[in-house]
């Protein structure tokens, strides 16, 4: 009898409006393996709330809402396309070339009729880069890039802050260049746009990501240019690069794997906050130190390295830089000097919001009026 009554109650509840059933009596849905109870995006936000509220204090609520809001993009003009026409079309959208605008306004003015002293060589930005953004507070979107009359795409849409590490690297004509963690390819493309690369090695451990990099190069760079710049795409373990090709490169970009903070808040796919990737996430700073050390070992004495992440975490940013410099001094007797990028921050502060208190390097923090980043970058010179 009791069983019949129980079955009748269950049937009645199934037929009843679910919303009228008290919460404690509702049937609880079983979670499938493919539907985690706590999505990785939620775990990421919980992690950021705990750590970044301490790291950034009163700034965190503003950064938080910006990270959760739509990201702004920049349009990197493809110099291998009809760049003058593309630039004119972007200007008609009321976008501006933030790079050349900043460099023009940042040139020293002569005093008392005297020629202004040139800035130090270490202040030089990588040349020939054109990237358009909309003004602060303007949330307009760029139309998708299209194939131009010269058979390559007109421009590349990217977080404009991602161009800053390439600008800071300060390429000079004839440089041999290594992009140690190159995929998906935006920064590699920007390195080629400078026209300075005598040789460019673009590496990514993941063969699938290296495949994406190849697609970007084929879509934006003509074959003869790829040959002339001797672009070499590899899928080696970047941690061993110092052993494979030590003391070779003039400029090295080390854009390491990180917690990719904005991606981790918006995408479940390939999210490093998935429970199955907890150990991988905890080991990130060690991996980052190994990659930066390899990049510095691959650099000639007197050459430059830029380390970058798209994370806000000082554990992945300043601490990695300081730890790597100490490691190289102790184990290899190599001295590394950190460049002061204060001038660089001032140059681009009209476009980006910078965190004012980095120990070393610079950090672009998301801001609703200029929702780029996060992007951390630090420039170093290998002295010995």
TrEMBL record:
<feature type="active site" description="Nucleophile">
    <location>
        <position position="310"/>
    </location>
</feature>
<keyword id="KW-0694">RNA-binding</keyword>
<dbReference type="GO" id="GO:0000957">
    <property type="term" value="P:mitochondrial RNA catabolic process"/>
</dbReference>
<keyword id="KW-0808">Transferase</keyword>
<dbReference type="InterPro" id="IPR049560">
    <property type="entry name" value="MeTrfase_RsmB-F_NOP2_cat"/>
</dbReference>
<dbReference type="GO" id="GO:0005762">
    <property type="term" value="C:mitochondrial large ribosomal subunit"/>
</dbReference>
<keyword id="KW-0698">rRNA processing</keyword>
<dbReference type="Pfam" id="PF01189">
    <property type="entry name" value="Methyltr_RsmB-F"/>
</dbReference>
<keyword id="KW-0496">Mitochondrion</keyword>
<comment type="similarity">
    <text>Belongs to the class I-like SAM-binding methyltransferase superfamily. RsmB/NOP family.</text>
</comment>
<keyword id="KW-0809">Transit peptide</keyword>
<feature type="binding site">
    <location>
        <position position="255"/>
    </location>
    <ligand>
        <name>S-adenosyl-L-methionine</name>
    </ligand>
</feature>
<dbReference type="InterPro" id="IPR001678">
    <property type="entry name" value="MeTrfase_RsmB-F_NOP2_dom"/>
</dbReference>
<keyword id="KW-0489">Methyltransferase</keyword>
<feature type="domain" description="SAM-dependent MTase RsmB/NOP-type">
    <location>
        <begin position="79"/>
        <end position="383"/>
    </location>
</feature>
<dbReference type="GO" id="GO:1900864">
    <property type="term" value="P:mitochondrial RNA modification"/>
</dbReference>
<dbReference type="GO" id="GO:0003723">
    <property type="term" value="F:RNA binding"/>
</dbReference>
<protein>
    <recommendedName>
        <fullName>5-cytosine rRNA methyltransferase NSUN4</fullName>
    </recommendedName>
</protein>
<dbReference type="InterPro" id="IPR029063">
    <property type="entry name" value="SAM-dependent_MTases_sf"/>
</dbReference>
<dbReference type="GO" id="GO:0062152">
    <property type="term" value="F:mRNA (cytidine-5-)-methyltransferase activity"/>
</dbReference>
<feature type="binding site">
    <location>
        <position position="237"/>
    </location>
    <ligand>
        <name>S-adenosyl-L-methionine</name>
    </ligand>
</feature>
<feature type="binding site">
    <location>
        <position position="204"/>
    </location>
    <ligand>
        <name>S-adenosyl-L-methionine</name>
    </ligand>
</feature>
<keyword id="KW-0949">S-adenosyl-L-methionine</keyword>
<dbReference type="InterPro" id="IPR023267">
    <property type="entry name" value="RCMT"/>
</dbReference>
<feature type="binding site">
    <location>
        <begin position="181"/>
        <end position="187"/>
    </location>
    <ligand>
        <name>S-adenosyl-L-methionine</name>
    </ligand>
</feature>
<dbReference type="GO" id="GO:0008649">
    <property type="term" value="F:rRNA methyltransferase activity"/>
</dbReference>
